[in-house]
Please model this.
Amino acid sequence: MSNTGFKRYIRGAQRGKILIAVLFFTAALFQTQSNTAKANIKDVPGQIKISAVSSFNSVATQTDLFGTSEKRSTKLKAFTKWSEMFDRFEQQIKSPSSSATISALQKDLRSLQGLSLPAMAGRVNKMMNAKRYITDKSNWGKTDYWATPVEFLQRGGDCEDYAIAKYTALRMLGVPEERLRIAIVQDKIKNIPHAVLVVYTDEGSLVLDNQSKSVWTNAQAAKRYRAIYTINRTAWWLHTNQGVTRLASAD
Model:
């Protein structure tokens, strides 16, 4: 495909505010290319966690999220909105202007300590879904802005901001990184990109969604969403469906 044709294809594939470039690709995506550096993303939620010791065991994550297969990569450099969010978050937790927001979050989360992971996920989902929904354009004057949890709690946000805040809250409660992923998905009903949080429990994966008051199981979410990529602080996973690999751009 020519560069001109590829650009037209990308423009045609853009739905909503999350840019998704859908194209056929190969396993060479995970081999050495121009983007070989691994992003050094700090565990910022861990710096303000309320649980000193994690009570959660390691878990073998599912590989059939929403009925897809996946390939893992630790090359996170391209995901600039993700890494820049963590950088801003780290600066904010050191700022006096954020102390009240962080203290209030820590206080709210302390009441969830000791719950099972499914129960904890359900409470966090309800807590964050109560915050105001507002588009990035109205909130920040940008079409795509990944807000820090501090920014989200102070100003509200959209789908990925809800997912990031839930990710942070569960990480603060001691949930291991390997059990948490932000998922960029295609909403098959609205035909737009969307973001949710996936939580891997011992009984299977759960989906925390700002479009649903209830936490969904993997099977329930698969009826509505098709996974494109998932990401946490240490890696990202490209999801394939029916033999077609889709590359999602985070820029």
Remarks:
- The radius of gyration is 18 Å.
